[in-house]
Write a structure and sequence with these properties.
Residues 3-66 form the HTH asnC-type domain. Keywords: DNA-binding, Transcription, Transcription regulation. By secondary structure, the chain is α+β, with helices and mostly antiparallel strands. Helices cover 35% and strands 20% of the residues. The chain has two domains: 5-45, Winged helix-like DNA-binding domain superfamily/Winged helix DNA-binding domain (Arc Repressor Mutant, subunit A); 65-139, Alpha-Beta Plaits. It contains five helices and four strands; from the N terminus they run H-H-H-E-H-E-E-H-E.
């Protein structure tokens, strides 16, 4: 299915506000409520919308550190990578993980209460994961742009 202008407008609107009512969405994209609801259901059924969720407040949750950890393996065995990937799924403070090219094998987006908490996490958790031989941390000083949703290319 190809996306038309209205489909794209619907997707952009729900990315900006996942709790938008159907009436407000319909008004925003220039449709009446019934056709808007049908289009939204079709976009969900066709897989354009993975899920809906709330964005939580880091300050309210006392999350003061955002870090990016570059994880390197000494031995590149599929079994170790699979085990590493399986284990990180169960660690909530790792909010994203990417298998990357370059000098590192994985890039982890990690949150912590403070630097002491992050340091203990690296020492006690990250370095103990299967295959990990080194961890290089890059600390975020300030978030300039947060996840504003995907662009519709």
């Amino acid at each position: 299915m190809t996306l038309d202008k209205t489909d794209r407008a619907i997707l952009m609107a729900i990315q900006a506000d996942g709790r938008i009512t159907n009436a407000s969405l319909a008004d925003a994209v220039g449709l009446t409520e019934t056709p808007c609801a049908r289009r939204l259901k079709r976009l969900e059924a066709d897989g354009y919308i993975d899920s809906y969720r709330a964005v939580l407040s880091k300050p309210a949750l006392q999350i003061g550190v955002t870090a990016f950890a570059l994880v390197r393996f000494g031995v590149h065995e599929r079994r170790l990578a699979d085990e590493f990937e399986r284990e990180i799924q169960a660690i909530p403070r790792i909010v994203a993980c990417h298998n990357v090219s370059g000098s590192a094998d994985y890039l982890l987006h990690v949150v912590a209460r403070d630097l002491e908490d992050y340091g203990a996490f690296v020492r006690d958790v990250l370095r103990a994961l299967p295959g990990v031989t080194s961890v290089e941390s890059v600390l975020s000083l300030r978030e300039v742009k947060s996840d504003a949703g995907l662009p519709l290319l």
